[in-house]
C-alpha cells in the first residue's frame, strides 16, 4: 500500500476479467500475519515477511472469475520479482521477495 498503486492494481484485475466482489483495508496483527503465512514458518524470510505485512495497513480483496486462483497467480507472476515476467504485477510493482506488492493464499 505504501507505493500508492492500489487503483492501478485493481484496474489490472478488472482488465484481466476479474470481478472485485469485496475489499477491506485493515492492519494485520503479528498473530494474524503468522497465521496467514504459517506454511512458511521456519523459512529464512518468514520473520521479515511478518514484519513487513504488519508494518502498515493492507488491502484485502476477494476476486471472482473463471479459474480465478490460477489466473490470479498468473497475473501476479513469480514470487521473486527478479524472476517475474514483464507485465506481471510483481514485475511492475514489487521491491523484493517479501515486499512483492501482492500476496495470494495457498488453497
UniProtKB/TrEMBL annotation:
A single GO BP: UTP biosynthetic process
SMART domains (alphabetical): NDK (SM00562)
Cofactor: Mg(2+)
CDD domains xrefs: NDPk_I
Keyword annotations from UniProtKB, A to Z: Kinase, Nucleotide metabolism, Phosphoprotein, Transferase
Residue stretches spanning the membrane: none
Entry superkingdom: Bacteria
Sequence ranges assigned to domain Nucleoside diphosphate kinase-like in this UniProt record: 1-105
E.C. number(s) listed in UniProt: 2.7.4.6
UniProt keyword Transferase, yes or no: yes
First-tier enzyme category under EC: transferase
Pfam families (alphabetical): NDK (PF00334)
MF-aspect GO terms: nucleoside diphosphate kinase activity
Similarity remark: Belongs to the NDK family.
Record protein name field: nucleoside-diphosphate kinase
Native organism: Klebsiella pneumoniae
UniProt lineage: Bacteria, Pseudomonadati, Pseudomonadota, Gammaproteobacteria, Enterobacterales
GN (gene name): ndk
Amino acid at each position: 500500500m505504501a507505493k500508492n498503486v492500489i487503483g492501478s492494481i485493481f484496474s489490472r484485475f478488472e482488465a484481466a476479467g476479474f470481478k472485485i466482489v469485496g475489499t477491506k483495508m485493515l492492519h494485520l496483527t503479528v498473530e494474524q500475519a503468522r497465521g496467514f503465512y504459517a506454511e512458511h514458518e521456519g523459512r529464512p524470510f518468514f520473520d521479515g515477511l511478518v514484519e513487513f505485512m504488519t508494518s502498515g495497513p493492507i488491502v484485502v480483496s476477494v476476486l471472482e472469475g473463471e479459474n480465478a486462483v490460477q489466473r490470479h497467480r498468473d497475473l501476479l507472476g513469480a514470487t521473486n520479482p527478479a524472476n517475474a515476467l514483464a507485465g506481471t504485477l510483481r514485475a511492475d510493482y514489487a521491491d523484493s521477495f517479501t515486499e512483492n506488492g501482492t500476496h495470494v493464499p495457498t488453497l
